[in-house]
Backbone:
């Protein structure tokens, strides 16, 4: 090789080598620096943990706001444990819990609506509580309502402890219904419709714009309750296909829509932005809702209204009807690193004294049967309807996709409330959409 | 010399390119792969249950009536709200550029203020403005003798209500861009036009609009891309609205992806939206360039 070429070659290789060396440093730095940052962050976390156990507790809705009042007593009984309560609104809770699971940042303890339990169990997010239950003296299965305890059992594992139970009953204006000729609340669907019509006629005669019942179309519970009352199963073939076109669901759906078509219920959600105001004004006289409203009505209705409303069990097609077995459970995250401390918190919240205190603060009904015998609950006149209704409950199909299907039911109920599409077509579309949602479940169950 | 230039490029562009690659291109690629699977709630718990399904998600999108509703709503919002927003911005810019207007900085501030407000807070206030019985808008309409309208509850009125809010919120941004464009037009053109006897409208059509063509193209494309992705207003005010009349494509994507965790389907939706916006931008650019020539 010519000497110049060799020199050039050496220079070039030197430069290439130099370039590679620099590029290599850049790449190494690029990988090392993020890790260094992570280590620093972890180190600071470690310092926090050594100062005592911190439990993260996510509570939803009104419970989230109010449970903070019970926490100081728990922290006093368990020194070294601090509980950080985060309250989430119900409208965003489902997304937030799923996202936190996907992001690996689930709290230690969280509240779950019991229709969500199958979903989170499929994810593997819930800890099986049987090892703790076997040795616990405070939490025993026999102490709870069996129907509610059953919603927490998936394939013989217990994945949640019932925290409070709720069901929906009829809240109604005693005075307005008496003026319409119903001194006692309606007990059948026919009486219910008759009362609604009479209330509407009364308002028209007085020249007021008013309705008989508030059926918000951003809820799925009333439609589901009516369907279950009518005996509809809603899904078929081991819960892998929609059965919304059958006569049982159709009958309930048509009954529900008739309230809107006869102007007995306001169409659209925005007309009543303040339920308490609407109820007090007599804009509507009946409302299907749960026990949390008792406390809210007591607090927010004007003093003159307090003697003029009452609760009653729901009317069914041919006599008193069932209602939804609702409520929330306390679930321990499988990824929690403080499981024993979380179990202590669960035992504390399931303690009869705390359940009674919780009831006093929020109006949420206790799940322990012994607390119901207590004079505080026995004396409350508004609770009588709930005690009766708790003896007659039904629940929707326990599958992970239920929340999504419930949203579809709600969507199509809204279409039905407007009344421009024939009911048969609405239900056919609902069936088709539900079949698409359940396609994965069909594949998993039948292996097709 | 060349090697040193390349070396400098690598050192200075490297970090930024790594960041973009890691936080943009890699996730987009992952989303593309995801859109060919049926990743859902079952797969979140157990990856092995996710199946590779090819184009099935895309086929399902085109068969889903909810997607067509969302597309129709988004196009409605775009085709009515877009031109309206641009017209209002241009009008405001012309007003603010006029010689006889005083206190220009004050007006610029007032018109730009909605742009910097938080959309969620604003949406809450506007929900009260739109209230059928106690809202300000119905009160004002009542003074003019119009009976109260259910702005957010009537499927026909909900989208116009959203458009009004979006135009009010965003016109300040485009107005500033138009003001800059207007100030770049040489006054000699206007003088020449008035010497030739052109009135205000003729000057506007023959001088202002053609000179503003590049600015208008820019504003149109940016507004169009933004409005195709409209999400926050329906999410806060109507959650998809009465009878899905304010359901937009991004809102549908959010519901499918983060509420039901059908990530495969939502990723496919994202790519369909990307292709639609790409096609629309392409068409828009071609049309306006053609007109300029």
Residues:
């Amino acid at each position: 090789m010519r000497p110049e070429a060799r020199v050039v070659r050496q220079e070039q290789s030197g430069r290439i080598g130099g370039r590679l060396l620099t590029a290599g440093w850049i790449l190494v730095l690029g990988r090392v620096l993020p890790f260094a940052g992570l280590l620093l962050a972890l180190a600071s976390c470690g310092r926090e943990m050594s100062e005592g156990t911190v439990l993260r507790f996510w509570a939803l809705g009104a419970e989230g706001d109010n449970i903070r009042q019970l926490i100081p007593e728990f922290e006093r009984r368990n020194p070294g444990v601090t509980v950080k309560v985060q309250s989430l609104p119900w409208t965003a809770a489902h997304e937030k819990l799923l996202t936190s699971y996907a992001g690996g940042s689930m709290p230690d303890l969280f509240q779950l609506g019991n229709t969500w339990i199958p979903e989170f169990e499929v994810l593997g997010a819930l800890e099986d509580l049987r090892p703790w239950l076997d040795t616990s003296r405070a939490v025993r299965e026999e102490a709870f309502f069996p129907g509610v305890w059953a919603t927490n059992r998936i394939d013989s594992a217990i994945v949640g402890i019932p925290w409070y139970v709720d069901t929906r009953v009829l809240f109604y204006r005693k005075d307005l219904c008496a003026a319409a000729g119903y001194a006692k609340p309606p007990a059948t669907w026919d009486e219910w419709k008759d009362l609604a019509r009479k209330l509407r006629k009364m308002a028209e005669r007085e020249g007021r714009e008013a309705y008989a019942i508030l059926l918000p179309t951003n809820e799925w519970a009333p439609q589901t309750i009516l369907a279950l009352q009518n005996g509809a199963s809603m899904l078929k073939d081991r819960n892998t296909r929609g059965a919304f076109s059958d006569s049982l669901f159709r009958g309930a759906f048509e009954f529900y829509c008739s309230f809107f078509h006869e102007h007995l219920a306001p169409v659209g959600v925005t007309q009543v932005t303040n339920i308490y105001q609407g109820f007090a004004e007599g804009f509507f006289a009946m409302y299907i809702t749960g026990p949390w409203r008792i406390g809210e009505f007591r607090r927010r209705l004007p003093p003159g209204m307090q003697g003029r409303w009452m609760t009653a069990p729901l009317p069914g097609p041919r006599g008193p009807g069932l209602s939804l077995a609702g409520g929330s459970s306390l679930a321990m995250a499988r990824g929690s690193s403080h499981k024993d401390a979380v179990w202590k918190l669960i035992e504390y919240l399931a303690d009869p004294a705390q359940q009674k205190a919780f009831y006093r603060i929020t109006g949420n009904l206790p799940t322990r049967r012994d607390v119901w015998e207590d004079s505080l609950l026995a004396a409350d006149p508004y609770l009588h309807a709930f005690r009766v209704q708790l003896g007659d409950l039904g629940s929707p199909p326990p599958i992970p996709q239920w929340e999504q299907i419930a949203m579809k039911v709600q969507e199509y109920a809204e279409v039905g409330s407007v009344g421009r599409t024939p009911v048969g077509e609405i239900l056919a579309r609902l069936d088709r959409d539900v079949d698409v949602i359940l396609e994965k479940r069909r594949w998993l169950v039948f292996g097709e | 010399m060349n090697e040193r230039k390349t070396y400098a490029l690598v050192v200075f562009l490297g970090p930024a390119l790594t960041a973009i690659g890691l936080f943009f291109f890699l996730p987009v690629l992952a989303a593309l792969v995801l859109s060919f699977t049926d990743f859902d709630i079952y797969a979140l718990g157990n990856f092995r249950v996710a199946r590779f399904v090819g184009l099935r998600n895309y086929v399902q999108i085109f068969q889903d009536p909810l997607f067509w509703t969302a597309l129709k709503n988004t196009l409605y919002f775009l085709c009515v709200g877009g031109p309206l927003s641009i017209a209002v911005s241009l009008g405001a810019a012309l007003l603010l550029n006029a010689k006889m207007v005083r206190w220009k900085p004050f007006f610029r501030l007032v018109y730009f203020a909605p742009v910097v407000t938080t959309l969620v807070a604003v949406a809450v206030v506007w929900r009260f403005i739109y209230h059928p019985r106690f809202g300000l808008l119905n009160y004002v309409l009542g003074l003019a003798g119009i009976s109260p309208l259910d702005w957010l509850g009537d499927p026909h009125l909900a989208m116009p209500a959203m458009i009004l809010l979006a135009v009010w919120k965003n016109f300040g941004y485009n107005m500033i861009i138009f003001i800059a464009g207007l100030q770049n037009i040489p006054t000699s053109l206007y003088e020449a036009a008035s010497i030739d006897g052109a009135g205000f409208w003729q000057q506007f059509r023959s001088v202002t609009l053609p000179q503003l063509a590049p600015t208008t193209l820019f504003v149109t494309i940016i507004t169009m891309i933004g409005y195709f992705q409209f999400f926050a207003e329906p999410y806060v005010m109507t959650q998809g609205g009465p009878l899905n009349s304010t359901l937009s494509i991004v809102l549908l994507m959010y519901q499918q992806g983060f509420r039901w965790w059908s990530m495969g389907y939502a990723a496919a939706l994202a790519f369909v939206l990307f292709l639609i916006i790409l096609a629309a931008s392409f068409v828009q650019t071609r049309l306006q360039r053609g007109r300029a020539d």
